[in-house]
Amino acid sequence: MSIANWCVLAACLLPVVTVGAAKASVGMKSPRKGGYDNHNPRQWEAGLTGWQQRANAAQANGFEALPLFIAAVLMAQQAQADQGVIDQWALAFIGIRLAYIASYLMDKAALRSLIWMAGVAVCVYIMSLAG
Description:
The protein is mostly helical.
C-alpha cells in the first residue's frame, strides 16, 4: 500500500480521533452529569461548549474534506502520476489537517480558514497530477 493510501486511511480516522477527544474529556461521568450519552449522541453533541464543541465541528469538517482528498489521490493514481509526488502531497494534506484541527481546538478562526484553504489547494494540486 502506498504512503498516499495510508494517508487516505489516516484522513478517514482523524475525525473519529478528534471527536473522541471531546468524548474522553468527560471521562466516566454519567450522562446526567455531562458525560457522554451513547443512547443520545446527537443530543449530547448539541449541548457541547468550548473546545469540545469545536472538536465536534472539526470532526464534521474532517468528514466533509474526505471526498475531495480521496478523489484527488485516486485520480492521480489512476492516471499513473508519479507515486512519490502523490505521496508527498498526501502527507502534506495530513499535516495540514492536523494543523487545522489544532487551530480549531485553539479557536484561531482566521488561521483555521487559511489552513483549510491550503488543504483544498493541496487536493486540487494532487488532482492536477492526473493531467
